[in-house]
């Protein structure tokens, strides 16, 4: 069965700040999605990461299918109406355009879609992150798909030994989509040169080299500020990762997040803090909006999801989180000084830029 898995995500309002959607907003999104079942898709999961609502759908249409996207758009719009009625903060924040034009890409919501021939058992991990940007997945995915120190399957399993092909997107290119395909391990150093800059170069997809038609990973790559031309909240990317057999195993992918790399985002989208792996449906952190990532491991059969297993909820992750919190607090001790605050070009609010321009005019040439 040729299946498409679509992950569609939007921040449409939250309770008491940029925290979490209300139960009523979530219920309305679920209701609209459920009404669309059978006509448009096979199965769905609706959950949240921080203040972002994620809709995951399985269907037999192609990625970018207008009806699938229209259903998600309608669900987010209906949810926004509830958020507005409840006075939630940032109601409809990620719906940047008024009219739906056949595809959610470019309208504000994040979209990751992956098409595949369903295996007899199809294990998949659904990742969602809040208060950060699409490049936040660069390092964990590189470790899982290219680094045998983290992913022993690259050495041990014949299905993985040929390595993987990484498609990297230059998200600063606005006129057209600029991508490059790099095969690991041969082009590992070239890959590293790009991935070291997660603001600009983002892993968009990863493919098996032994089975070139088999896509392992799809990451949403939309940068909201490229659409809106100004800061309207962080991008908060989603990603789909197929696991096991010819791909890294779930337990190889997991530890790649334990490193908790410093990523851009958190308060006012203008700082670096470590990416904290959290259980599903965790509200955004009141500690400086620490960037967070959640993962649901699911199996799919005939397009139906099993009940998900929460990837970052077992006891090991409590230990990891303690370490991540220490890392975050240490960084916060240096307040506004880089790299705690982002470099000038990446600041999402204009206050510093405006003030610096005035200050530069006050400089005089020393005689
Ligand atoms: O990062 C944040 C929100 O991100 P989000 O929109 O949830 O992706 C917050 O730190 C806000 O920038 C901060 O709370 C200020 O928000 P405003 O008062 O400007 O809306």
Automatic annotation (TrEMBL):
Keywords: Carbohydrate metabolism, Gluconeogenesis, Hydrolase, Lyase, Magnesium, Metal-binding, Schiff base
Record pathway: Carbohydrate biosynthesis; gluconeogenesis
Statement: the UniProt record of this protein carries the keyword Ribosomal protein: no
Residues bound to Mg(2+) 1: 11, 18, 51, 93
Active site: 11 (proton acceptor), 231 (proton donor/acceptor), 234 (schiff-base intermediate with dhap)
InterPro entries: FBPase_V, FBPase_V_sf
Record-listed Mg(2+) 3 binding positions: 234-236
EC nos: 3.1.3.11, 4.1.2.13
GO BP: gluconeogenesis
Catalytic activity: beta-D-fructose 1,6-bisphosphate = D-glyceraldehyde 3-phosphate + dihydroxyacetone phosphate; beta-D-fructose 1,6-bisphosphate + H2O = beta-D-fructose 6-phosphate + phosphate
Residues the record lists as binding Mg(2+) 2: 51-52, 130, 236
One Pfam family this sequence matches: FBPase_3
Binding residues for Mg(2+) 4: 235
This protein's record includes keyword Transcription regulation: no
Cofactors that this protein relies on: Mg(2+)
Signal peptide start and end residues: none
PANTHER family for this protein: FRUCTOSE-1,6-BISPHOSPHATE ALDOLASE/PHOSPHATASE (PTHR38341), FRUCTOSE-1,6-BISPHOSPHATE ALDOLASE_PHOSPHATASE (PTHR38341:SF1)
Task performed by this protein: Catalyzes two subsequent steps in gluconeogenesis: the aldol condensation of dihydroxyacetone phosphate (DHAP) and glyceraldehyde-3-phosphate (GA3P) to fructose-1,6-bisphosphate (FBP), and the dephosphorylation of FBP to fructose-6-phosphate (F6P).
Domain description: Consists of a single catalytic domain, but remodels its active-site architecture via a large structural change to exhibit dual activities.
Family: Belongs to the FBP aldolase/phosphatase family.
Matching HAMAP family: FBP_aldolase_phosphatase (MF_02067)
Record text on subunit structure and interactions: Homooctamer; dimer of tetramers.
Protein name according to UniProt: Fructose-1,6-bisphosphate aldolase/phosphatase
